[in-house]
Fold diphosphoinositol-polyphosphate diphosphatase.
Amino acid sequence: MKEDTKTKLNQNQHQQESQQQMCRTIQVVSTVDHVDMSPPVASPVVVVPSPSDDLNLIPPLNFAMVDNGIFRSGFPDSANFSFIQTLNLRSIIYLCPEPYPDANNGFLKSNGIKLFQFGIESYKEPFVNIPEDTIREALKVVLDVRNHPVLIHCKRGKHRTGCLVGCLRKLQRWCLSSVFDEYQRFAAAKARVSDQRGECCPASE
Amino acid sequence: MKEDTKTKLNQNQHQQESQQQMCRTIQVVSTVDHVDMSPPVASPVVVVPSPSDDLNLIPPLNFAMVDNGIFRSGFPDSANFSFIQTLNLRSIIYLCPEPYPDANNGFLKSNGIKLFQFGIESYKEPFVNIPEDTIREALKVVLDVRNHPVLIHCKRGKHRTGCLVGCLRKLQRWCLSSVFDEYQRFAAAKARVSDQRGECCPASE
């Protein structure tokens, strides 16, 4: 227990130090003129200095960009909607069999985002039981640029999403060891810092 | 020792299973017509079925896409050059003080890639000692779309690269806990699978 407390204290202290470091750095950098730097579609590197934390955007758990127009994450909740709006998604690929929550369906409807659901039961590694035909159909949706920008997500953005992304990497001729490195980076991810979200990141709504 | 051996065997077995799973899946999916799916610039989701492993591309250690036109990785070596060529880079941001190797300089020259070097000594967390003015200058280069596509790299793609990407995320108004989650995903990455690269991924040159 003592060690846990100590660890958490150190972690918080480190967060504070890093936060101060980042904020000091950002404060100066944000004076750079970004007018010609971020056209909405061509480059979504939108840089908007935030006056306070309560304006921060909260990406879904395990969020990452996979390739141009392709994103991955864990299950998005209402706290992530403001962030997801910045992606200008055309579609979402949802890899769980459970029905999509009303709140998420409402968000998709109001933002004109198409939902592709491929119900894959929850498996951990080895994922030899993931149905090939389902992954195949999901890959067709991922590869069709008419669906881009697209967000691929399951529950935690680890195994089902990682399997689909891994198949995409193989199509992109990625070396298998690199495919597994990327898979492991997300599958092994601990959400330790996110557990403390309430301390530094109130939802924007 | 016995346990290590057993673990490695299981890992290899899992790799084999996963490899078979992926290859079976890919074999069918790669019959989809991709002609209109991958214009070289707008969407680099280049899908080229690979007849054999020796045509595989090898991304640098810890490679990932940060945002449109922005990539991150560990130090690229000659085995990664074929992959890096697919990114059509305009520039590279190199965050170590050590001089860039001749082989890498030659690759940059022959591919018209501009090198921005910001010599930051190797630090682990907490990275309070990373010089603010250097990070500030590096961020200006990252944010200037005239340098895109750009690859940010240090030695292992963990701490120095992670600090610069973390500052970018703060400018993008990412919630701090998500910034730290992303930082940790790379800082904590073990290259276990890559250690076995020789077994499944010969360099393409």
User: Anything to note?
Assistant: The radius of gyration of chain A is 19 Å.
